[in-house]
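EI: anyone free to look at a 669-residue chain?
SC: sure, send it
EI:
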Amino acid sequence: MAKYQLEVTTGDLCLAGTFDYVYITLIGEKGLSERTSLDNYGLDFQPGAVGNYTVNSDKDLGQILLVKVEKDPYFFYSSEDEWYCAKIVVKTPGGESISFPCYRWVSRGEFVELRSGKAVKASEEKYPLLINHRKTELVMKRGIYIWSEDEAGLPHTSKLKLAELPAEVLFTDAKTRDLKQQKQMLGIELKMKGLVGSDERWKQIQDLKRVLSYKKTFISEYVEQHWKDDDFYGYQFLNGVNPCLIKRCSQLPPNFPVTEEMVKPFLREGSTLEKEMKEGNIFLTDYRILEGIPTRSYEGKRLHVTTGFCLFYLNKETQMMPVAIQLCQQPSDKNLIFLPSDSDSDWTLAKMHIRNADFLIHQSVVHFQNTHGLAEVFIVALVRCFPVVHPVYKLLIPHCRGTLYINQDGRKVLLGPTGPFAKSSLGLEGITELMKKCLAEITYSSLCLPDDIADRGLESVPNFYYRDDGMKLWSIINGFVQEVVGHYYPTDADVIEDSELQSWVQDIFIHGFLKNKSSGIPASLATVQELAKYITMVIFRVSTQHAAVNSGQFDYQSSVANGSLLLCKPPPTTKGESSLQTILDTFPNVGETVSFVALAALLSETFNDFVPLGSYPEERFTEPAPKRMIAEFQKALSDFSAEVTARNSQLKIPYTYLYPPEIENSIAI
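SC: here you go
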């Protein structure tokens, strides 16, 4: 009689335990063990519990290949009772300990067959049983995770509805409760103040401060005080929620006829615009992408969205200052170039319209489509193309937590008929067209931070903390990924011959980027270096990039004075005729304002089940080498965190969005 000792760990999640019967069968290369009920004296399988059990076999099973887990109802306990099994460790009669990671919910009447924790590529499988098990797992997953083409021209999504999402991609119960509570708190304050649904206009700018009094931050209060300041306005294009559009300008666009006379008062004494461009001190944001996008009707008239330019000057105090704004692509008598020397209200309105265009692109494309949308593509492709034992699956599954759930919920909210996108200046039709247009123009370089920074000519811009922190984190993530990838893929041939890996990359190319070869997005990978860069891009986008463009939304978007998805009046076409009242009339009304502020507050929230970048609470890698690499990755992140803390202590406006302990490992909000 051979005796196998089992150590069974129940997850410490809320409601992870079960009162049901749990059965184990060990499947070895030489046969099967008895089907054994795991039943000790007292309560088994409570949250966080580790139980020890014995499984008997009438013979030596040889190498243990699978652990079969079954759960049947306790005879008088009738309600559904899922169990979250973390892992099972099997100690063989010969003294070998083998870990079988699970980290999933097991339902009543279901059986789960667990592989050992050693990462294995398809070409490395030795046993026919495991080869067949691998194929069966992928067939099952492809039957569950089905692609849905909701809208032609946009990234494809998961066809699963919220109630159908498998446990491996669900929110935790704690996150669901926290999210519901946060929504309730927001609703209570706004309703008590009588702001929800109000169609009143704002009577004075200081009234905007009372929208959400309980959720003030240092930066949100700074924004309220300094939103009109040109130096702070320019700062936000580097370190606000959308640092992805500004670029160095070495030659003015021919349809942006800024003259020397216009901007000379704002340059260094004795300098010229041409000289400043040559020295790399002139920068530009161009909103051409918005040209031809339909806007929505508001109070019987079509709303205006700028498609023009904003020119910036890096002055001797290293401040990024706006110096010229044109609000349409083509110059004309009614498409004026606004300057800081214009009246305060004219210049403020011009800046507001630029911010409106910038926020529209930020929220719909930079944030929603290019992080949430692409993350969904990465995840669905991952679970369709890789079995759980594949090293790439083990590496990336921690970065998938909660994303499909929040995307399902987010699409209903953001793209709903009364949601923020519907209330924006573009409306749902315009937002959808903008996302399609941006996807058609996306490039692989724009998704890889070092390439993007170089393409925009921003390598040496001072006080650019998004770039500084982002580049450091890209380097840390890439170093970690290179080690893991190099461990499992010693040669380029290993990459080329991994059919599951190539299928994943192909799936992303087809369903995320719609086979757009001009984008430069790989449809296959041929080298270890290419694979390391690609996985770095995926991890960076779903953790670091999302934090950069999401975490500061309340800070910078809780005041519609600083920028809004909706502006109700067109910009001035003549100078000197606007006033403070014009600015107030341009703001969204009270009810529209609070819906935008509530969205920014919710998206910027940190919840109790937050998992920071570099944390791997689920031990999916069991070999010593990847475990060492994870520890080194965590050490590098910790050292960088200390650097960010020291730097921020010296800044007037701390940049915290890429502080590693505040970067979530996945897109879960």
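EI: The radius of gyration is 28 Å.
SC: 👍
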